[in-house]
Amino acid sequence: MMNIRSDYNQIITSVINLLDKSRAELIKENRAKLMKICSTVLLCARQMIALRGHEENGESRNRGNLIELLHWAASTDSLVDKILNDSDSNATYLSPTIQNEILKILADQIRRKISNEIKNRPFVLMADESKDISSKEQLSVVLRYVDAENQIHEHFMGFTKLDQFDAKALYEKLYELLMKHDISIQDCIGQCYDGASVMSGRHAGVQTLMRQNYMPRGVYIHCFAHRLNLVICDVCIVVSYVDEFMGILSKIHQYFTSSSVNNEHFRHAQLSLQLSVSANNSSLFFEAVSMDYASAKVLIQSIINQIQYSVIFTTTIGQKDWGNQKSFHSNENKFRDELFYSLIDSILIELNNRFSDDNILLFSSVSAVHPSNQQFLEIEFLKPLASHLLVDFKLLENELNIVKHFIREKIASMKTIQDLLTELKPVNEAFPATISLLRGALCLPVSSTTCERSFSRMKLIKTYCRNSMGDECLSDLTLLAVERDFDIDLEETADIFSKSHKNGRILLS
Fold this sequence. Notes:
Strand 2 (about 135-145) and strand 3 (about 150-160) form a beta hairpin. Among the domains are: about 1-55 and about 60-105 and about 490-500, no CATH class; about 225-355, no CATH class; about 360-445, no CATH class. The chain contains 22 helices and 5 strands. The relative contact order is 0.13. The two termini are about 40 Å apart. The protein is globular and about 110 Å long. It is an alpha/beta fold. A 5-stranded mixed beta sheet has the order 3-2-1-4-5, with helices on both faces.
């Protein structure tokens, strides 16, 4: 009797083990199928191509990029062939709803990585808005920070659709997005927007409401690229000749571009005349992620100095010809007197007006950490910045006495704050207050052009042919296209997906 019971228990144990093994193998295969689908969804998202087709039934000759890619891969990949042919028609995990869910999981995985990188670091909030192809207002949100290797990062967090456009609605949307992704809003040391009154208003603008309610250290920074554009607009208003010239130039451009024949003649004329273009791309420097506030102020001052020098130079050259009455009344002198000087004066006035900061003490303090500044690392000038970044001032003062001695032979070769940080990298732990101060200064941006770059991707993703796309789907697709440098863990994706489908027909865990 005991032998029969023992044999029975062994049989039961063997059956259970066999079932467990079979179940484990089934789960492993199902997860492999899911990860294959996820990797194909990710491929489509990063290449900014549509996932779905107009008709996705078996009779359609074009069922969308996702399914067509899987059919193409099925000829050489047995696992993909099983996804398409061995699964029940209602359990393939290829439906539009599942595709959107996978996109959400993939995008949120990147957002979590960004959130974890920012934790306990000062960061700057950057935002801008634009209309998509459906005329919906989308607010782009970007976060800027400096990592432990002293590298500047600007990461796109996504779009949030705007239904109302007053300051209160905008700042609530920003707050909700930051809280949703576990961003410590108290660590925000700056806000960078364009100059729209709803964003920049001193009394009831978004920047003011954010500082009053959530981020007391969130100093407002007006995008430098936008400021330069405003300088040009203001100069056109003040100097009527420039406005007229721009109008004529616009009509010439319209004439040549409105006709393919005219455009072809124009191209041949350019080639025959061997025209070359000389351009000053100073504005492009402001669009670089690596550009910090202190370096931008140095660049602006150099532009102003260059313009002032050109006035002195042309005046001196002109005076040489004053003895010659004929030369004095020449067209060149008339141009110089009536247009050139007034234009230069207007540019200088607008540059000085547009680039004079309200928070003059703080931003002067930021400039004092730049190697080219006359007050470089002077402790008295660094007080406002140290206070803003919550750096221990007494500790900073003691450290700077040593730092100045440590770098005195290398100062001449330093061009940026990053050069200084690179020099101090081997001894970072010895100067914690100084490193915090420098990274904080490096974190302050000069423009919100990363937001503009997200709009460029948005226009490639949500097109005339894809104008019914949902807002969350647009945000996730754009993030996956913009933040391509982040690696995606497909095992983690499968884990998250399986938790929300515990009662699904396909075993995943």
